[in-house]
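Amino Acid Chain and Its Fold in Token Form
===========================================
Structure side: the spatial fold of the chain, written down as a series of whole-number tokens.
Position: the record begins directly beneath this header, with no further notes in between.
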Amino acid sequence: MIVPIHGGISMNQYVSSISGSRLAMFLLGATLALGFTYSAHLMSSAIVSFKHQNTIKVKGMADKVIMSDSANWTATWTVRSTTLKEGYAELEKQRGIVKKFLSDAKIPDDECTYSALTTQTVFKQDERGHTTNDVFGYMLSQWVVVKSKDVRLIGTVSKSITELIQEGIEIQSHLPQFIFSGLEALKLELLGSATKNAYERATALAENSRGKVGALNSASQGVFQITPVDSTDVSDGGEYDTSTIEKKVKAVVTLEFHIEK
């Protein structure tokens, strides 16, 4: 049975109207709450962004062209013989020729270190290419290591010594290693210059945004490498070129500064 209410509205309609009002109020409250939460999020993001704008991170670089001041170089010669005795005699003869060549090239004897000889037994192979137990002959080798401050002379002699091949000497010239001894002092110098460069970059960027470089927040060393002068190679782990006399040394640092408004 439906009981009339004042104004001609039924009880069910009255209850429904009350429930609808509460639902509307609930939805309104939820909407406002979500709005406040979103606004708070935007304000928080703005604060974080503002904080980020108060710092600046820059890279600084410095490089310098240097000349190597010492060289290490090795040359190896090999003799092949059917007997050890004959092979040893021939190796000694060739050692004398190599020694004279280096002396004529103005390389002092005290800069040359001669190794002991090494021997390797060569066994015959059968018709299928399998190694047998029968001795075919011997390979005897010796090498000389040259350490000199005259880097240009070593660069020249390391190329010309293969002329001895024309005299029947089986000689191999290894790639010289050119080294700079003052690397640690130079590294400190370049890191200082790279730091100065980073500060100058930060200052220029800050001035363009009407700011001023403040305190240093953090600093880290980046790539430190030694490359040929004309090289454009960059390695995360750095490089240390020893193949060229003239080199370029490069240092990179990363600095983060506080920016004062």
Remarks:
- The chain is about 40% helix and 35% strand.
- Residues 68 and 180 are 5 Å apart (CA to CA).
- The radius of gyration is 40 Å.
- Residues 70-179 form a domain with the Alpha-Beta Plaits fold (CATH 3.30.70.2970).
